[in-house]
Amino acid sequence: MATARFRQRSSYINHAILIFMASTIILPLLVLAFNSIKPSSEFGANPLGFPNEIRLMNYYDAWVNGNYTQIFTNSLTLVIGTLILNLTVSGLAAFSLAVLNPKGIQTIVVGLYLLVGISIPAQLFILPLFLMWKTLYLLDTRIGLIIIYSALNAPFATFLIRSYMLQLPTELFEAAKLDGASVMQLFTRVALPLSWPVFLTTALIVSLTVWNEFLFAITFIITDEYKPISSILFTFQSRFANDYGLVSAASILMAAPIAILFMFFQRRFIAGLTSGATKG
Amino acid sequence: MPKFLTSINAISWYFLFPVIFIHFFVVAFPSILSLLLCLTDWNGFGRINYVGLENFQELFRDRVFKKAVKHNIIWTVMFLTIPVIVALVIAYLLTGIKRGQLFYRLVYFFPYILASIVNCLIWRYIFHPRHGLGGWFENQGIDFLAKSPFAMKETALYAVAWVDMWHFWGFLVIIYLTGMYQVDDSLYEAADIEGATKFQKFRYITLPMIRPIFVLSLIIIIIWSVPTFDYVYILTMGGPAYSSEVVANHLYSQAFQRMNVGYASTIGVMMFFYVGIIVGFFAILRRMGWEV
Q1: How large is the ipTM?
Q2: Does the pLDDT of residue B175 top 60, yes or no?
Q3: Among A140, A242, B157, B183, which residue's CB has the most CB atoms within a 10 Å radius?
């Protein structure tokens, strides 16, 4: 009895600490949410609290003054383009490393190459890449940025997809081969349908990193018209420096798609993001 | 077609070709260019002159670079302590509770999926001297946070690190939690019979058992601290008076504001060598049979 009561009390303390730490995350987010519906006249008198008067027009202003339809389209183009290119090249490579020739010299050479690739800091190559893109007329284009994002995410995606494909039973591929399937058919008819879960996880993580990416976005896109959401938000914070309602609404518009995806696929997000770090 | 072009060995190379091509084109080739350009004084156009190791000599005289390196070291030490300790404690507490675990995990992890620019805007507002916390304290008649910590020389670096840590520590919680759930329950039961306290169980069972994942998290932090850029660039641009300048930001301004291609490449090469040494060091430790 005594220990049970002691346990109970210590669990209250645990919860108190956990709730306190949760509030350090929730409260700043709440402030952002409040600000996004606060009229700008109220910011001085009521800096942190719930607004006395709700002004949803901030969102309208952010959408229209910020030309958000265009910006959303830009970011979405980058995400979709990167997904198509990245998942294609990574899927093919993972299939080769996991199924076609898992014990070959390729696995060691390419695996090592991609491992080194992950640990190269972007700052080493960003400037020569910038000059290359300039000469190739890829600078300030969305396709140029899509190629960069696909390459940067390729090692992670390849490793993640490969580790899943390694678990597929080899008998399936043997059976398909006996039925006369070509190598390409082994990929499209056997490997792909079986490994859709890992492709979904990879797609979610890649979408997240592309949507949030900042360094390459501000460097490689110069024209406002092509800018994705992260670099536009950066120019917003100086352009509308005193209009906190508008900037907050714009931030929430940027975070919302990711937050919604996270709610639906939280397990995949968490598994993908942590395995990317612990396996890579 | 000749047989050697259709063998399974050749075909497996065909499948690997696209990824190698695109990655080489975007990462490896410009990296090699950087390794060559660091020996020149190129400014983006005009003649390329070979200057040997002059850039490196200049780098070691560069006051701002020295400051930036110092700040990167402070940054790394901060990230190796504060979020690691908080995350260890929180993860350990989380293993002890059943109700609401999923809720806590989601909340702690949430900032990690938000964009750096969004996190920065949240905290820039909260630390705003007239609005935010400063304004709130002022309304209560307290003169606290009357200046934004981002705008003061003494605090700028720590304020930026605070925002980045706020975004990062939940990620560590999940990593440690994964490790802690792999610990065999019977160990704790045995410790309970021996009458071990909560802290003793943590110190003598949990910590040794999660050591591989723990060491890995430290390596990740060390490597990720090197190219840290977003938060500094968005919040302070390295200012005021270089008080929050980090190496990546210094490189960025040399590269894209002053177009000192050779010099910027030199900084990049230094970062690369540093990361290489860290990775190599841990690879050797692992070879020597260290369970890391």
Answers
A1: 0.89
A2: yes
A3: B157
Supply the range of the domain harboring residue B166: 62-117+149-287
Report the number of distinct structural domains present in chain B.
1
Superfamily of domain A69-279: MetI-like (1.10.3720.10)
Percentage of chain B with pLDDT > 90? Answer: 41
Q: Which one of B131, B175, B227 has the shortest CB-CB distance to A278?
A: B175
- Answer yes or no: is B42 within a domain: no
Ordered by start, the domain boundaries in chain A are 2-55, 69-279
> How many Cβ atoms are within 10 Å of B290's Cβ, its own excluded?
12
pLDDT at B2: 62
- For residues B139-157, give the mean pLDDT: 80
The closest CB to that of B251, out of A32, A45, A123, belongs to A123
Q: Does A215 touch chain B (CB under 8 A)?
A: yes
Domain membership flag for residue B33: no
- The confidence band for B54, taking pLDDT boundaries of 50, 70 and 90, is confident
A chain contacts of residue B114, beta-carbon cutoff 8 Å: 212, 255, 258
Q: Write down the mean pLDDT value for chain B.
A: 87
